[in-house]
Specification:
Layout: H1 2-30, H2 35-38, H3 50-59, H4 62-93, H5 99-110, H6 114-127, H7 135-139, H8 145-158, H9 161-169, H10 174-185, H11 187-203, H12 206-211, H13 220-226, H14 235-245, H15 247-270
Helix pairs in contact: 3-14, 4-8, 4-11, 5-8, 8-11, 8-15, 9-10, 11-15, 13-14
Amino acid sequence: MKKLTSSLSYVILAIISFISLFPFYMMITMSTYKTEQIFQSMPFLPSDYFGKNIATVFQSNFLQSYGNSLFISVVSMAVCVLVSAMVGYAMLVYDFKFKKALMNFIMLTMMVPTQIGIIGYMIEMRTLHLTGTLWPMILLWFANGFGAFWMIQFINGSMPMEIVESARIDGAGELKIFFGMVFPCIRPGVLTLCLLIFLWSWNSYLVPLVFVNNESLNTIPIFIKSLANAYRTDYGAQLSGLLLATIPLLIMFICGSKSFIKGLTAGAVKG
């Protein structure tokens, strides 16, 4: 019976893996075809047009768009994770007025879609004279409701208050406690949030679509869309661009997969 259950589990996992990986395989395969060939039949095997599709991608401002997306994602990730971790630490160790109301407000911000606040955010960026720069795509992540909620839950479940109190008795300052003791203890949660924020920022489409008014400010999603013109959409080149755009995400997930899974598991158990 155990062998049957184990075999059935492997079969189910294999089916789920196939369903998950098949679209990625098709993206790789279709990126090797001309646009016209893609619609003639379902291409299951690679063709010989990949080099020309890649050449089309690099003839545009792909590298600049890639650099823009990388800069936005790295800065957004670093600041969002740092601020979120500090919020989580403050909510754990300090008792202050309206603490519960602040927690409820953080949870409320998670329920509000980005689309609702985009007009107000656009007016704010115009007032600060930041339109026409990359900063509107970065500042959006400086105060992130999900990041704050994630770190509050993670720190609350993985960081004993006794450690903080012992460090204070020994004369350690708040910054030393936070960076020297708390941060290493919450490493899985931090790395998990890093992966999520980088992924969301890298794939963000709506905010760049609203604020980018110059080709030099293009991010990867806007660049891929720009490969279409009024007369023709080059799907082969777009799929090649998408393939190149997944490389940083794959590298980050491969390098941090263990911490990512550990962070998700810990968050689920302690949250």
